[in-house]
């Protein structure tokens, strides 16, 4: 059995071990387990049943992870995307006054379109057409973005009315994150295997001992019923009969498309999978996440996509689909151990996100900074991902600048034809986002 697992996932080929892959999957899960609690809270604001959303989030995430691991064989996890779930709840349902059932139907229709363009390899062609320098910028930009998320989650960076952001007050659980990050840095410098996971575990224990994190009163609970949300997306497809709803569907499609594409490229760069500026088996990876989005809409959750927190597992050494399979199994188990998951607060996972940001930022060194026509769009991507709090927005702005700078530098013929197409697509994308708000 062990030999079959090693052979199927190509664990030896990637210089890994079963133990390391499972540890990586556990680390990824710990880093993104917060979505089990955050997603129901966000969608709950749209009057959806929080218990049903919790179960839908767990099952849809598990399905995507298992597809990504068993079919695409990548150490990349999937879950409902942050940002697009807020758009679903606050812009579509609350802002536009659209019933959540109809909004779910919009996600369902977008997922079907997603599957079709994936089957016809349009998504794969677009990813392959993105120049190598921009892919490095996307990877490094994601690193800065998730480091920013980590610092925000830890309370190291806080909102500031005068300067937008500023240094927070180091007290309470913020010190827990700082201690976790310092321990993580020391362990990694000492080349201790599983340093990221060990540091998070120690931080959680310290938090419970000091009372900064409340200890769980129970360990096991039954999974909430899916009945309130299951199948609502299919029942309300006929409700999509206005131009406003068509725009909503297009927005779900575009945001998830480019968010996931950027994340996949960034993670592939981090793991060293890219070959000749192409991601092997990218078609299978794209089919996995689009299938998960379809399943998620039927179960009752906002769009599913590849998760940047997968970088935590990759940093631990995860290189095969076994990592994603492990994460998927843990999402299923997470439905029954929800009280225990509350111990893993954002203050515990924040150090991992910051550290992964350090590792991914290294791709900035590979960008051709001596060529201004490359440096400008690359910098735009790097700067706007964290500052707009959106991977998709960062990619959009960078890709818009790229043809402009290349044509100005008299290198327009070197721009792949699809990049010119993307130039106009992203202009429309940004227009839809602006007018949809």
UniProtKB/TrEMBL annotation:
UniProt KW keywords: Cell membrane, Membrane, Transmembrane, Transmembrane helix, Transport
Keyword Protein biosynthesis appears in the UniProt entry: no
TM regions (residue ranges): 21-39, 51-72, 79-98, 104-122, 134-158, 170-190, 197-215, 245-265, 286-308, 314-333, 340-362, 374-403, 415-433
Coiled coil: none
Keyword match Protein biosynthesis: no
GO cellular component terms, A-Z: plasma membrane
Pfam families associated with the record: Xan_ur_permease
Subcellular location: Cell membrane
Membrane topology: Multi-pass membrane protein
Sample GO molecular function, one term: purine nucleobase transmembrane transporter activity
The organism's place on the tree of life at top rank: Bacteria
InterPro entries: Azg-like, Azg-like_bact_archaea, NCS2
Family: Belongs to the nucleobase:cation symporter-2 (NCS2) (TC 2.A.40) family. Azg-like subfamily.
Protein name stated in the entry: Xanthine/uracil/thiamine/ascorbate permease family protein
Organism: Ligilactobacillus salivarius NIAS840
């Amino acid at each position: 059995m062990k030999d079959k697992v090693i052979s199927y996932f190509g664990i030896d080929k990637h210089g890994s071990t079963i133990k390391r892959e499972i540890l990586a999957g556990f680390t990824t899960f710990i880093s993104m387990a917060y979505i089990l609690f955050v997603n129901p809270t966000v969608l709950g604001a749209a009057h959806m049943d929080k218990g049903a959303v919790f179960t839908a989030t767990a099952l849809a995430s598990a399905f995507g992870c298992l597809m990504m691991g068993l079919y695409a064989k990548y150490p990349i996890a999937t879950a409902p995307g942050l940002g697009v779930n807020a758009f679903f709840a606050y812009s579509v349902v609350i802002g536009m006054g659209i019933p959540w059932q109809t909004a779910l139907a919009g996600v369902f229709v977008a997922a079907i379109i997603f599957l079709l363009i994936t089957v016809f390899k349009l998504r794969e062609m677009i990813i392959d057409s993105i120049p190598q320098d921009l892919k490095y910028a996307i990877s490094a930009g994601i690193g800065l973005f998730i480091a920013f998320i980590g610092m925000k989650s830890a309370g190291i960076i806080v909102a500031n009315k005068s300067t937008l952001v500023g240094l927070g007050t180091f007290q309470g659980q913020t010190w827990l994150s700082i201690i976790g990050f310092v321990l993580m840095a020391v362990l990694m410098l000492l080349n201790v295997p599983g340093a990221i996971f060990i540091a998070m575990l120690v931080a959680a224990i310290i938090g419970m001992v000091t009372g900064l994190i409340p200890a769980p009163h129970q360990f096991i609970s039954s999974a909430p019923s899916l009945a309130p949300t299951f199948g609502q997306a299919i029942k309300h497809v006929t409700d999509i009969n206005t131009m406003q709803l068509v725009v909503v569907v297009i927005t779900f499609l575009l945001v998830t498309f480019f968010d996931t594409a950027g994340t996949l490229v960034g993670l592939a760069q981090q793991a060293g999978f890219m070959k000749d500026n192409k991601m092997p088996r990218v078609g299978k990876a794209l089919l996995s996440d689009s299938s998960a989005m379809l399943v998620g809409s039927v179960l009752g959750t906002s769009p599913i996509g590849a998760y940047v927190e997968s970088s935590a597992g990759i940093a631990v050494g995860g290189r095969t689909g076994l990592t994603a399979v492990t994460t998927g199994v843990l999402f299923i188990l997470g439905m029954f151990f929800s009280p225990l998951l509350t111990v893993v607060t954002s203050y515990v996972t924040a150090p991992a996100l910051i550290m992964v940001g350090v590792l991914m930022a290294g791709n900035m060194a590979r960008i051709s900074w001596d060529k201004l026509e490359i440096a400008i769009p690359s910098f735009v991507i790097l700067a706007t991902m964290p500052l707009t709090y959106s991977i998709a927005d960062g990619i959009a702005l960078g890709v818009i600048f790229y043809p402009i700078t290349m044509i100005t530098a008299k290198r327009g013929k070197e721009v792949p034809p699809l990049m010119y197409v993307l130039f106009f697509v992203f202009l429309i994308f940004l227009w839809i986002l602006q007018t949809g708000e």
